[in-house]
């Protein structure tokens, strides 16, 4: 398991992967168990939903109904889940770089015949793999929930809904990762990435209230996630690509910055 | 002449505004043990980190094994073994796991080398790093630095935290490394170990290299203390005028003298009286060290004894 920086990093994340995957997975599973009863009382919930000002529904992904699987799962879970998973993504991303520098083990690592870019890439690859694994466990848990309640959603859609979390949370993590590569200490990386996560979500929710916020919508990042509906109309590939492209951009920034910086614990 | 194993020219590092090292120029020749001396904060670790490309110079440059650490860092680090001053290892891994991991990062190490070194140092590789004492962690660090049989060993305070027996074991290991014709660059503030091991020492003070001397030369400038017991009290005044004499105090019929360099003029002056006994104390580098400091780091050739 300790044959490369990639495998070592993934090995270090094993408990976190299981914890986050199963934790969020349990949440999804039990949320799905409630679906049949909510569907039965559907009219009531939809009445409540429509008593909100329509602008406010952007906070729950602009769902129109609680009685469809897409509306129910997006409104009760998938709209905010990336914010929760971002806690892991940001924490892990910063830990991989800043944690290793602060602990002093980066000295040992970089004293070996590895170029710095390779250390960064292998650690990043491990972050991607860890996040993907969590999303996959989450998708499998939804699949289990779907089977338990006899849902007619095909298995592939559940898994897709799980993996659909990846591009956005990865971008959150990558912003933190890039800043950890560039700047000493944790504060800058954690604060910037958290501002993007929370600020982006809130801003996205406020956009319907004001015309003037409209141009900012696409910069919230969150927009490119919530417009895709794996359990409903399907994901939007262009939006996924935009999110992945953003991650690639920040990864490149991190690679360049880490190559130039001083390693000072 | 062979290419120096380490060569720095005007190597300077500032961290923002605070001083790391200033204009350090030195050469370490193949096969020697070079001691890098100086109090904490003098810049020893900064110099070492520059050689390994963990940090980048503000000015000047360094070459290690004839290569530029910044451009050819991978090749340099393939051939260098490094023990950091504040060694940090992965706390949850066992010593064996740490060494397996780092051996992989080297693309493998000579067969049996880890086991051989572990035996020599009596290192326990089965326990998690977290549970090891500082000295036992240091042993893992030493194995880590040596296991790929590097041409150059860079050790930052290697004996820190080792008990005297293990210090001896390490000295023997290092002497073996030198017998192989390999080179060792190590920092220390423990003078007896420098005296024992080193061919030459560089003395760093407040970021500047104030002297590079062979250990025997350094002993030559060392201040030697002696007690001269005379038959009856003598006037200390004439002794103070003798070249090299730094300090004279009289108590009863005994003179306590500190002298730098040749003892000859002092002995000749003492011989004018009846001498009952002379007790000399082995000069130590600590005093030589302090002598350099007293001169504010600007020693000229003329000062040499």
Describe the structure.
The complex is a heterodimer of chains A (265) and B (305). Chain A is built from 13 helices and no strands. Chain A has 265 residues and is mostly helical. Chain B contains 11 helices and 13 strands. A 6-stranded mixed sheet of chain B has the order 5-6-7-3-8-9, sandwiched between helices. In chain B, strands 11-12-10-13 form a 4-stranded antiparallel sheet. In chain B, helix 3 (95-105) packs parallel to helix 5, helix 4 (113-121) runs antiparallel to helix 5 (134-146) and helix 8 (215-221) crosses helix 11. Chain B is elongated and about 75 Å long. Chains A and B meet through helix 7 of A and helix 2 and helix 3 of B.
Keywords:
heterodimer; A: 265 residues; mainly alpha; 13 helices; globular; B: 305 residues; alpha/beta; 6-stranded mixed β-sheet; 4-stranded antiparallel β-sheet; 11 helices; 29% strand; disordered C terminus
């Amino acid at each position: 398991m300790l044959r490369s920086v990639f495998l070592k990093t993934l090995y270090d994340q094993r408990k976190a992967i299981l914890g986050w995957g199963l934790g969020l997975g349990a949440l999804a599973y039990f949320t799905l168990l409630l679906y049949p009863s909510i569907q039965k009382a559907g009219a009531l919930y939809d009445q409540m939903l429509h008593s909100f000002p329509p602008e406010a529904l952007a906070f729950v992904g602009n769902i129109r109904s609680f009685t469809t699987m897409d509306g129910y799962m997006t409104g009760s879970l998938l709209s905010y889940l990336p914010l929760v998973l971002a806690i892991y993504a940001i924490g892990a991303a910063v830990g991989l770089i800043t944690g290793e520098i602060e602990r002093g083990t980066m000295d040992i690592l970089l004293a070996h015949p590895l170029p710095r870019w390779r250390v960064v890439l292998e650690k990043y690859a491990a972050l991607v793999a860890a996040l993907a694994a969590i999303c996959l466990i989450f998708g499998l848990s939804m699949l289990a929930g779907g089977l338990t309640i006899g849902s007619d959603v095909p298995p592939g859609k559940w898994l897709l809904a799980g993996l659909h979390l990846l591009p956005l949370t990865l971008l959150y993590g990558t912003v933190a990762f890039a800043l950890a590569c560039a700047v000493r200490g944790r504060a800058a990386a954690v604060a910037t990435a958290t501002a993007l996560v929370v600020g982006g979500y809130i801003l996205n929710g406020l956009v319907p209230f004001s015309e003037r916020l409209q141009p900012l919508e696409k910069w919230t990042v969150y927009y490119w996630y919530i417009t895709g509906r794996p359990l409903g109309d399907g994901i939007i590939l262009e939006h996924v690509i935009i999110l992945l492209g953003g991650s690639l951009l920040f990864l490149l920034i991190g690679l360049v910055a880490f190559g130039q910086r001083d390693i000072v614990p | 002449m062979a290419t120096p194993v380490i060569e720095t020219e005007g190597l300077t590092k500032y961290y923002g505004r605070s001083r790391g090292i200033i204009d350090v120029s030195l050469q370490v020749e193949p096969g020697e043990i070079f001691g890098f001396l100086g109090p904490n904060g003098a810049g020893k670790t900064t110099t070492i980190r520059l050689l390994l490309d963990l940090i980048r110079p503000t000015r000047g440059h360094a070459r290690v094994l004839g290569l530029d650490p910044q451009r050819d860092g991978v090749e340099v680090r393939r051939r260098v073994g490094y023990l950091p001053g504040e060694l940090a290892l992965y706390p949850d891994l066992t010593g064996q796991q740490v060494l397996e991991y780092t051996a992989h990062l080297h693309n493998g190490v000579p067969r049996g080398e880890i086991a051989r070194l572990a035996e020599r140092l009596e290192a326990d590789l089965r326990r998690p790093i977290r549970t090891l004492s500082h000295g036992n962690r240091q042993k893992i660090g030493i194995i880590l630095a040596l296991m790929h049989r590097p041409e150059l060993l860079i050790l930052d305070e290697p004996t820190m935290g080792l008990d005297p027996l293990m210090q001896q074991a390490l000295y023997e290991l290092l002497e073996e490394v030198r017998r192989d014709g390999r080179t060792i660059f190590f920092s220390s503030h423990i003078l007896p170990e420098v005296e024992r091991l080193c061919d030459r020492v560089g003395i760093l003070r407040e970021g500047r290299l104030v002297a590079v001397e062979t250990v025997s030369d350094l002993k030559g400038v060392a201040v030697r203390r002696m007690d001269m017991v005379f038959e009856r009290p003598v006037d200390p005044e004439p002794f103070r005028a003798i070249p090299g004499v730094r300090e004279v105090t009289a108590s009863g019929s005994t003179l306590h003298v500190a002298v730098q360099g040749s003892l000859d003029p002092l002995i000749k002056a003492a011989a004018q009286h009846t001498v009952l006994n002379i007790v000399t104390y082995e000069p130590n580098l600590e005093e030589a060290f302090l002598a350099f400091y007293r001169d504010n780091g600007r020693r000229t050739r003329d000062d040499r004894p």
